Amino acid sequence: MRVAFVQMNCRLGEIERNRARALKHIDSANADLIVLPELFTSGYFFAGKEEVESYTEPIPSGPTLLRLMEIAKKNNCFIVAGLPERDGNTIYNSSVLVGPSGHIATYRKIHLFDEEKLWFSPGDRPFAVHDIGIAKVGMMICFDWMFPESMRSLALAGAEIICHPSNLVMPYCQSAMVTRCLENNVFAVTANRVGNDRRNGERLHFTGKSQITGPKGTVLAQASSALEEVQVVDIDPALARDKNINRRNHLLNDRRPELYRL
Prior knowledge:
single chain, alpha/beta, Nitrilase/N-carbamoyl-D-aminoacid amidohydrolase, 6-stranded mixed β-sheet, 6 helices
């Protein structure tokens, strides 16, 4: 199958512009599974909760989901994308999985980073894996990478590809994903932002370098630190199913959870 990331410069509050650019990039990708950045519609560096609320949408009935489902059906592909979700009076930093048949799943970010704790409620659903026919995929968002339990939970549930919408501002994640994929023998597609968000004279810079990482820790594709890019890689999800390290060691079966203190 062909997997892709869309690396975008998502402008704060310019929802129509951001959505249009994302749809254009999806159309150009010609891939089976396409991953967009975290909060791709809204931007990130919010001035207050009221601003965040003005950018939220219900899932799956919001306008962004309708457009994503439309293009997924047209292109016969699956899309993972991050956006601010409104569920009643509660706001989540969420990602959605849609395909040719419509909305498949929603993940709500579990590990909130810095000021996200002021704007969003922490995710209330466990990590889950979804069989899309050509592969089994799981979702996590940005700062989830810092917690090994995130990818390990998905690997234990059978994930072959981890879809990772991001707005990375620290320089560590891309290197860390090599280890995360190696220790779980999975593929990962990290779709990051480029550019800056500004508010009240402050600036937040996003690091780019979106990345597709293989089960043996191989970097299969990496974007630049500054440009909008779409990169596509052919992968075989079956490579993520064999957890044998050698004749005597199995990556998951050799775990000793009865001796771990978690």
